[in-house]
Amino acid sequence: MNIQIEDILGQTSNASSIHPASSSNNNNDNLLRCKTKIVCTLGPKSRELHVLEELLRSGMSVARFNFSHGSHEYHQETLDVLRQACANTRLMCAVLLDTKGPEIRTGMLEDSKPVLLTAGRQVTLTTDYSAFGNENMIALSYKKLAEDVVPGAQILIGDGSIVLEVISCDIANGTVQAMCTNTATLGERKNVNLPGVVVDLPTITEKDRIDIVEWGMKNKVDFIAASFVRKGSDVRNIREVLGEEGREIQIIS
């Protein structure tokens, strides 16, 4: 669901009067206790001081920082403004670092031009990520693709805008033959999802480790949201990265 900031703020002009942190009225009987926590992803339209102040007054409980995008410097600027907004409004807000996590992507295309994939047409998927793709062949970054998928399985590309159905797998050559189930245009380096497949990728990538240690722990964030967690050991690995210094940071998986 895509909810615009303007919609939230426009419907909550009276929010400050019911926020639990609004302590101007000392009569506890008149305070409305908030039982629902609101998590807001901060981005280009929600990092200005006045917008953050309005979000806090409207009930924002947790600010989510999406580390799939943006540099440490960019997120630091946003966090600094958020903390100023908290000081100005005297409202508390938790900070959540959402890791990028492991990912599978399609490769580059011939002449860097998007290609049209047509429903009913077969396409070869190769794990040779150096190959340039076209309407007949697409490179994927996951080396174990041919081992992990089976005929009949689906492969989703570009947030599911392209759906492929596996026909056959050639493990020796690292290729998969698939059929397009819909007509759509494919660009370069699109995300890939393998429904039902436990992919053999680390839960914490080197980028995630740097983000957690050099930004999250430095800024004493409240939560780490771990992407693509598949088993208990994944959470334990994150806890090891946090160590004693980050023992107070909670992990959401």
Brief sketch in words of this structure:
The chain is α/β, with parallel strands linked by helices and 253 residues long. It is 24% helix and 24% strand.
Notes on the protein architecture:
- This protein is α/β, with parallel strands linked by helices and 253 residues long.
- 24% of the residues lie in helices and 24% in strands.
- It has helices spanning 5-10, 49-57, 72-89, 145-148, 206-217, 232-242; strands spanning 38-41, 60-66, 94-98, 104-105, 115-117, 122-126, 137-139, 154-157, 162-170, 175-180, 184-186, 191-193, 223-225, 250-252.
- The strands form three sheets. A seven-stranded mixed sheet has the order 4-12-8-9-10-6-7. A five-stranded parallel sheet has the order 1-2-3-13-14. A two-stranded antiparallel ribbon has the order 5-11.
- Strand 9 and strand 10 form a beta hairpin.
- Helix 2 packs across helix 3 (72-89).
